[in-house]
Design a protein that fits this description.
Structural class: alpha/beta
Radius of gyration: 18 Å
Order of helices and strands: EHHEHEEEEHEEHEEHEEHEHEHEH
Number of helices: 10
Mean pLDDT: 95
Low-confidence stretches: none
Length: about 270
């Protein structure tokens, strides 16, 4: 059995931190041979502190399944990236809608996150928090100019919830195949993200890769938001935190205590 948890809104508390109770509980479980990992929308840059605090040793899922990364040897085991030809139609669609895409890509051996401007609180919260943290990937660009050399991890647009709902519906009509299109409300800014990924870049698929890699056949999942649904629905057992987005939306999964009550860590203790 593998225990897999999302980070934001699930394992992290309302301040976006790991509590001492959660850190000590997960470390103690790991020392007893319990296999615990994470499946997050975060990149290695924004998740690395949490991986270190938890001293995780088995592969983790990042960027909603675009990457499987092994902290034990600092290697990427699997990645699902889009080409320039694949990303361009969606990029053009969002630009034509007057939105500000945030584009995560690789060119050569370099990682970049491109944005043109900041128009709302959700964009400001995300971009400025990364810039203030010294994230050198982020670039303010005049235009989105790419070549066949570039590969794309993901692209997202952030906006007011009611506006994003309409954009999402139209994007799903125009691009029904060839992409995973996530829509979810950010835990911290309360703005809606629409995120575009490779069609095989899902937490569900990446967890299957991790299970095969570790020769395990069962997993228990913990998540809080729409982008967690695939891994929750495919898990042998699944839990959502009390008062989480999925809980408030009426999804009928089993529940843990809230994120400020160390719900995931205490639930795993109970389960074993």
């Amino acid at each position: 059995m593998i225990y897999v948890s999302d980070l934001d809104g699930t394992l992290l508390n309302s301040k976006g931190q790991l509590s001492e109770i959660t850190i000590n509980t997960i470390k103690a479980l790991r020392e007893k041979g319990i296999k615990f990992t994470i499946a997050s929308a975060r990149s290695i840059f924004t998740a690395c502190d949490f991986l270190q605090q938890l001293e995780l040793k088995i592969p983790v899922v990042l960027r909603n399944g675009a990457f499987v990364y092994n902290p034990a040897d600092n290697k990427v085991l699997m990645q699902k990236l889009l080409t320039q030809d694949e990303i361009q139609p969606v990029l053009d669609f969002f630009i034509d809608e007057g939105l500000n895409p945030i584009v995560h890509h690789t060119t050569g051996n370099n990682l970049y996150v491109d944005y043109t401007k900041i128009d709302n609180y959700g964009e400001m919260h995300y971009i400025e928090s990364r810039l203030n943290a010294g994230d050198v990937r982020f670039r303010n660009v005049n235009k989105y100019l790419y070549s066949a050399e570039s590969e794309f991890i993901s692209m997202c647009v952030i906006g007011e919830n009611h506006i994003q709902d309409d954009i999402y519906d139209r994007a799903m009509e125009i691009f029904p195949n060839g992409y995973i299109i996530h829509k979810y409300v950010d835990t911290y800014s309360n703005h809606t993200w629409i995120e575009i990924n490779h069609p095989e870049a899902t937490k569900k698929n990446a967890i299957k890769f991790v299970m095969d890699y570790l020769e395990e056949s069962k997993y228990t999942a913990f998540g809080d938001n729409i982008n967690d649904l695939g891994m929750l629905e495919s898990a042998d057992s699944a839990y959502i935190p009390n008062e989480s987005y999925l809980d408030k939306a009426g999804y009928l999964f089993n529940k843990t205590l809230s994120i400020d009550e160390d719900g995931v860590a205490l639930k795993i203790l109970q389960l074993i």
